[in-house]
Inverse folding.
């Protein structure tokens, strides 16, 4: 009897061991899903973080202009606001065509004549927090203002930055496919020697000045042009610890949201390295998205082109896309359709760019408070942690972004179409929460109804 019990015990142990091995194999071989047609992914982000919400890019708005609009911005569903660069400029011009002045700083200190003073910024941050809104600063740390000659400093550059040892002094970049050149040479302005401890200390002091005044995050302009010490920069003569040192010394750093302008080129962008320090701009996805809404083929807006959604800030257009003419031809409807896609997706942090209409310091075109845009913002805020299921129909002119069983966004970039597709939504009648009149019915796992032409449909429980 004892022998049989021992034998039985050994068999049970053997079975348990086999089950344990199989479970380990399953656990360690499951790979993260990259969203593709008709499949799902689940990403959960804390609702209290900047990343979980929608960023409103108040491009060239003054601090006081933003403060005056905070009630409307909050009610439109935005959780954070990105301000234009806050550093000193070489000219006080507020002509809209001189927007670029803000990207040629003369110092690393908070306040300029176009946007407002340190006290104006601090007041904005204080009031914004009462609305549950965080302020993100667009920080220009790669270079300083030129005098018209890209290699020469403007005379207005602060005396603390006039010492030439603070610069790389290797001329301007001419080979944009060379990692050394894009990080150690200028991009039209004198290039700061970001390996220098003095330069890094100045950056830390400025960024902490912003944080102490109330900033909750930063966008690093031209971040791709500041070297790392890993990836393509590992063990290279130009490798540096700028990002480790600067980001590691920020006040309240665990609560500061960081993302950088890393324009993907698939050659020397070193994007995987930057993803270890910060979130990155999904610039290639933005290009594909604009192509999708202008070509009436929404299947082009499928994934993030190799980037992890949770590491991305995605957008229809950036200020650079608009100002260089790349996206200026997009109609308001196309911008809204693009926004409906990026802001209803799972994982990434969407940024809505407000197009300028007059002088620097003034409010922009107002599409940010359009009823469809607002409805999409609110949809985004409701869907944290819900899985994503993408589907295309109507010759790819119609795209459905379904978020678990809680809601779906339908973007129709073509003619009116009869919808009859599988869905996880509960049975019932659903009315569009956007501007277009549309009612759909869900019954027995299928969603049915007519989708009007050129429309955005937002449905939730």
């Amino acid at each position: 009897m004892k022998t049989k019990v021992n034998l039985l015990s050994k068999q049970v142990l053997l079975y348990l061991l086999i089950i344990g091995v199989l479970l380990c194999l399953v656990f360690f071989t499951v790979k993260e899903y990259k969203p593709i047609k008709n499949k799902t992914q689940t990403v959960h982000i804390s609702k209290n973080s900047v990343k979980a919400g929608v960023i409103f890019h108040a491009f060239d708005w003054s601090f006081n202009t933003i403060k005056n609009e905070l009630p409307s911005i909050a009610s439109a569903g935005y959780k954070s606001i990105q301000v234009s660069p806050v550093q000193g400029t070489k000219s006080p011009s507020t002509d809209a065509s001189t927007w670029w002045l803000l990207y040629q700083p003369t110092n690393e200190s908070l306040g300029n004549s176009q946007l407002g003073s340190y006290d104006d910024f601090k007041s904005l941050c204080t009031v914004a927090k009462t609305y549950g809104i965080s302020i993100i600063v667009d920080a220009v740390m790669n270079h300083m203002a030129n005098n018209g000659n890209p290699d020469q400093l403007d005379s207005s550059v602060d005396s603390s930055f006039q010492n030439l040892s603070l610069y790389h002094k290797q001329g301007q970049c001419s080979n944009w496919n060379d990692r050394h050149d894009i990080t150690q040479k200028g991009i039209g302005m004198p290039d700061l020697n970001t390996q220098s401890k003095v330069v890094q200390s100045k950056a830390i002091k400025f960024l902490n000045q912003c944080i102490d005044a109330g900033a909750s995050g930063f966008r690093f302009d031209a971040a791709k042009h500041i070297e790392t010490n890993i990836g393509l920069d590992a063990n290279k003569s130009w490798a540096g610890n700028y990002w480790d040192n600067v980001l590691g010394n920020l006040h309240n750093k665990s609560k500061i949201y960081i993302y950088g302008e890393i324009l993907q080129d698939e050659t020397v962008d070193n994007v995987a390295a930057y993803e270890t320090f910060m979130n990155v701009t999904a610039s290639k996805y933005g290009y594909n998205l604009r192509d999708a809404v202008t070509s009436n083929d929404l299947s082009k807006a499928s994934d993030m082109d190799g980037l992890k959604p949770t590491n991305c800030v995605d957008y229809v257009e950036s200020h650079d896309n608009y100002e260089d003419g790349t996206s200026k031809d997009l109609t308001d409807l196309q911008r809204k359709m693009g926004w409906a896609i990026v802001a209803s997706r799972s994982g990434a942090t969407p940024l809505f760019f407000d197009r300028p209409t007059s002088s620097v310091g003034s409010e922009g075109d107002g599409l940010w408070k359009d009823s469809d845009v607002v409805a999409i913002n609110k949809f985004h805020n409701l869907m944290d942690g819900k899985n994503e299921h993408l589907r295309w129909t109507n010759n790819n002119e119609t795209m459905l972004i379904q978020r678990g069983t809680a809601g779906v966004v339908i973007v129709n970039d073509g003619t009116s179409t009869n919808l009859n597709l599988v869905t996880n939504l509960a049975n019932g009648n659903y009315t569009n929460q956007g501007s277009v009149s549309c009612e759909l019915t869900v019954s027995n796992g299928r969603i049915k109804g007519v989708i009007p032409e050129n429309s955005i449909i937002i449905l939730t429980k």
In short: The longest strand covers residues 134-140. The CA atoms of residues 111 and 117 lie 4 Å apart.
